[in-house]
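Task: sequence design from structure.
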């Protein structure tokens, strides 16, 4: 289930776990409204379940830090 996150600019994002083809798991930040691009940040989890658990256990400050380190997701 997606997690909701509000950034420092009061923009709301849905956060989900995604995976790249080489097996790295990412927190994917999807804007709830238009005007922003999808962002991603790597997670430490080595499986889909571990990545979700990592994301679920993050406090608000940890999630904010992850968002601040995130980068715009390249177009596929």
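Answer:
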């Amino acid at each position: 289930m997606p997690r909701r996150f509000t950034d420092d600019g009061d923009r709301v994002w849905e956060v989900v776990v995604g995976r790249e083809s080489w097996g790295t798991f990412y927190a994917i930040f999807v804007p709830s409204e238009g005007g922003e691009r999808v962002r991603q940040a790597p997670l430490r989890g080595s499986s889909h379940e571990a990545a979700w658990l990592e994301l679920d256990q993050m406090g608000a400050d940890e999630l904010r830090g992850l968002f601040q380190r995130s980068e715009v997701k390249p177009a596929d």
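The helical segments are 48-57, 60-69.
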